[in-house]
């Protein structure tokens, strides 16, 4: 109530805060905010997405940039997500995102995605239309073991794995 400035938490549709879940779990705070649609946690310290609890199934937009995340375990409890902004974390495994049936926008800039095959998981997000991957190793080479190939084109490779993608790194995906 102090953060939102609103007594009736039913009215809260958007919330921005910084948290440190190393000391305090957020528990199931989403239960108190049944109409929360947008949550900004940028520059927080989150040990795991699980620290958000399991009561954010009604959330449409989630920002967790620069939160120290190394995996996305628990993201499936945010089943209504349409937009997910997780830039500048340490995420390499994208398999958990396959559970997000409504996902349209995903910002993965500056993460640790180093295997182009991780994009196959995003191919299963049938509504995904906007993807940002710049600043990941896959932009330079297909996987961590391979040498840099002069004719490697990450844009073409991503488009192959996610044919329905409309924008890649803010440029029409058709431009390879």
TrEMBL record:
Transmembrane segments: none
Keyword annotations from UniProtKB, A to Z: Leucine-rich repeat, Repeat
InterPro entries found in the cross-reference section: Leu-rich_rpt, Leu-rich_rpt_4, LRR_dom_sf, LRRC56
SUPFAM superfamilies in the cross-refs: L domain-like (SSF52058)
Pfam name, any one: LRR_4
PANTHER family referenced in this protein's UniProt entry, alphabetically: LEUCINE-RICH REPEAT-CONTAINING PROTEIN 56
Name of the protein: LRC56 protein
Organism: Lophotis ruficrista
Gene of this entry: Lrrc56
């Amino acid at each position: 109530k102090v953060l939102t400035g609103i007594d009736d938490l039913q009215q809260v549709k958007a919330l921005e805060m910084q948290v440190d879940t190393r000391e305090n779990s957020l528990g199931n705070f989403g239960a108190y905010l049944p109409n929360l649609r947008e949550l900004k946690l940028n520059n927080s310290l989150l040990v795991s997405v699980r620290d958000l609890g399991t009561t954010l199934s009604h959330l449409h937009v989630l920002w967790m940039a620069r939160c120290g995340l190394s995996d996305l375990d628990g993201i499936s409890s945010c089943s209504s997500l349409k937009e997910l902004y997780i830039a500048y974390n340490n995420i390499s495994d994208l398999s958990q995102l396959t559970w997000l049936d409504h996902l349209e926008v995903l910002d993965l800039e500056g993460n640790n995605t180093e295997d182009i095959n991780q994009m196959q998981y995003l191919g299963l997000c049938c509504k995904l239309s906007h993807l940002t991957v710049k600043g990941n190793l896959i932009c330079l080479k297909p996987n961590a073991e391979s040498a840099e190939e002069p004719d490697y084109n990450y844009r073409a490779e991503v488009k192959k794995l996610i044919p329905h993608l409309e924008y890649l790194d803010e440029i029409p995906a058709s431009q390879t």
